[in-house]
């Protein structure tokens, strides 16, 4: 479930920010959001990819998860 979510996030980042696959993977895997998604107690892995992407986009643009 988490792998599918991460895959979708990477594709969204590639499309939205026009990044290569490697750059998008690096951005997602090094984000605060990735840590929160993989922490099962947060429950973020149950949320939709678009919900999580909005959090990631805010982290990218603001430098933190709002």
UniProtKB/TrEMBL annotation:
The protein's name in its UniProt record: Uncharacterized protein
